[in-house]
Specification:
There is one protein chain. Helix 1 crosses helix 2. The chain has one domain: Ribosomal protein S6/Translation elongation factor EF1B (Alpha-Beta Plaits), CATH 3.30.70.60. It has 98 residues and is α+β, with helices and mostly antiparallel strands. It has a 4-stranded antiparallel sheet, covered by helices on one side. The relative contact order is 0.35.
Length: 98
């Protein structure tokens, strides 16, 4: 039985401090992670660097925000968050149904 895919909109806060990779390279890495959980990226929007309203780390006061629309199976967002948890270039991940 083929599982149906759902549409999602994910917001990522990227952190490239101390990292030789550019933001575009980090976004490509996130797209590969989405593909690894049987997802298909439909749109990418780089919002740019924004300061945080609530700063938890005085050395990191803002990050680059990126919206990615993708379709994936219903368990895709859970697997994606778990895979990105170990990626230090992705500071935060928010996934919502579109």
């Amino acid at each position: 039985m083929k599982s149906s895919k759902r549409n999602y909109r994910a917001t990522f806060i990227l952190d490239n401090r101390g990292n030789a990779d550019s933001i575009d390279q980090i976004i490509d890495g996130v797209k590969k992670e989405i593909a690894a959980v049987q997802g298909e990226v439909t749109a990418v929007e780089n919002i740019g660097k924004k300061d945080f309203v609530r700063v938890t780390d005085k050395k990191f006061t803002g990050g680059t925000y990126v919206h990615i629309n993708f379709s994936a199976p219903s368990d895709g967002p859970t697997h994606l968050k778990e895979r990105l948890r170990l990626n230090h270039s992705v500071y935060r991940t928010f996934v919502q149904s579109a």
